[in-house]
Amino acid sequence: MVVRTADFLGKAKKWDRHTLPLGQDWPTSNMKRTFLVLLGAVLAFAVSSLNAANIGSQAPKLQIEHWVKGKPVDLAKADEKKIHIIEFWATWCGPCRDSIPHLTKLQEKYKGKGLTIIGITDEPKATVERFVRRQDKQMEYTVAIEKGDAMSQSYMRAYGQTGIPATFVVDQKDRIVWVGHPKNGLDDVIDRLVKGTFNLEEEIANEKAQIRLQQLSVEYWERLVEGRKGAETRKIGDELLSLVKDNAEVSCNIAWAVLTDDAVKFRDLDFAHAAAKAAYDLTDGNHPQIIDTYALSLFESGKVGEAIKLQKKALSLARDQQEKVQLQKSLDRFEAKDGE
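Request: output the structure for the sequence above.
Response:
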């Protein structure tokens, strides 16, 4: 992912940011704890996300300086009541370049079913034209350069998007119905729109739940870092847990963060144990990294014997050597405590 964000004066800034996306294979030992990275992203961009426009809103007008490839598109035209994908990208953006063949395949697959893909950038005309020429058949969809930063404001900024590539899906009624990364659910959205099975109300409900999750994550973490105990912190933690308990990866990682992050002054062991157990149950107790987290939650709660038993199970299930070393270190620590 490449982040394109703005300071408080609205001046555009660009830099590389490394993140670990959800929904992919679980990383092993040295990369296993992604929640701290995810939380950092939430804390950094919560304000823009929480103030963002909502899906279901009418798509803003396309404001284009140059159409580099393909015919001009007007979303409001009666004869263009079709599905549009609007992707913000840049020639210098590695992840954007990686998504180009994917978008081309998507355009070809649904070209006869009313789909038009438009790549939007803000770079100089000569730079974009040279890049598109070199891509040739690999970039077989419409490409345009926005007028000033008009579209960056009405799409990217309005919807709280800080990274590129960023994709907006506009349905047959000219409504923005989905916003995200082109390789993270876009194909499914288009397929459902084409088939007529896309449920906008359900998507809006999911968006509201995500916004609430962001709010709770920020508030709960701030309380832990400040050392604020009490009923209100536990109430926030309970609601946060209710939103993540069905996602083993997130539940495990947030539990690990609560248990290990140096910035935390109040280690909410009840929350960490509940989150770790939820992840453990969801994976039927068969994932070494999740078992490791659950074992640590027991160890920190004084249940050393149970922690040792689980840690041995985690070690027996580990396949990666680096992972085994990390798990063994934890087991050694647990057993040393048990022998005191």
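Residues 1-38, 40-52 have pLDDT under 50 and may be disordered.
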